[in-house]
Specification:
Helix content: over 70%
Order of helices and strands: HEHHEEHHHHHHH
Shape: globular
Low-confidence stretches: none
Strand order of the largest sheet: 1-3-2
Distance between the termini: 21 Å
Largest sheet: 3 strands, antiparallel
Mean pLDDT: 92
């Protein structure tokens, strides 16, 4: 098993939550690539915890569809299910264009400032070629849009139910350096559309932003066939 990317333990975070957060982060950021065999013993040693919190994390991750538990064979990071990506695209295009339209009508100054801070972060990640940092900031951009429109719980539902789509996006960014530049430009254009109250422009950019991830999957399947179902 590849070396985990360990995270700082958060204040008041118990070992159960810590183990889950580290494994989830490593799977979503492809430090643990699709098909990787998972060992409770190895992971408990790497995380310096007992096997119980690791086992509980396995259960939660399998419920999210991120781990496959195969009797007599073991536990593996699930491969990306391309059949579901079209459904995820429909969900995200439907919800996120609606949210952008709301944001273009009215968006609190506090959240506009947060959005602009995200763009500054992304510029730094671009310079460093930091894929993980950029992707986290990308997700934060979308989260801010939902929060600013008073729909934070909808973003939580989307984020938790479109894990394969998000993993495909990370792979896409990692596979081609110019992808970060494209996404960053789209985020800049979205922020500008919101500032100008240009809903038509904002919706068009968001559709392009979401659809691009799906289009690129066909290229990724040829480049990384072992990562996809």
């Amino acid at each position: 098993m590849e070396q985990l990317r360990l995270l700082e333990k958060e204040p008041r975070e118990n070992v159960r939550e810590y183990a889950y957060r580290v494994l989830y982060d490593n799977i979503m950021n492809l430090h643990l690539v699709p098909g990787t065999a998972m060992s409770e013993q190895e992971l408990s040693t790497m995380l310096s915890v007992s096997r119980t919190p690791v086992r509980e994390a396995f259960i939660r991750l399998s419920q999210k569809g991120l781990l496959d538990v195969l009797p007599q064979r073991g536990t593996f990071v699930s491969k990306i299910n391309t059949e579901q990506l079209a459904e995820f695209r429909f969900l995200r295009v439907t919800m996120e264009t609606a949210v952008v339209e709301l944001a273009c009508r009215e968006f609190p100054e506090e959240y506009m400032w947060k959005l602009q801070q995200c763009l500054k972060e992304q510029e730094l990640y671009l310079r460093r070629r930091d894929v993980n940092g950029f992707f986290a900031s990308d997700n934060q951009t979308h989260s801010i849009l939902y929060q600013g429109c008073g729909k934070p719980h909808i973003w939580q539902i989307i984020e938790s139910s479109t894990a394969d789509y998000m993993r495909a996006r990370v792979l896409n960014i990692a596979a081609a350096a110019e992808q970060m530049n494209i996404l960053y430009s789209q985020h800049q254009a979205l922020a500008e559309a919101i500032l100008r109250h240009d809903a038509q422009r904002g919706v068009a950019i968001m559709e392009e932003h979401i659809n691009k991830g799906i289009i690129d999957v066909e290229v990724l399947r040829k480049q990384y066939p072992d990562y996809f179902k």
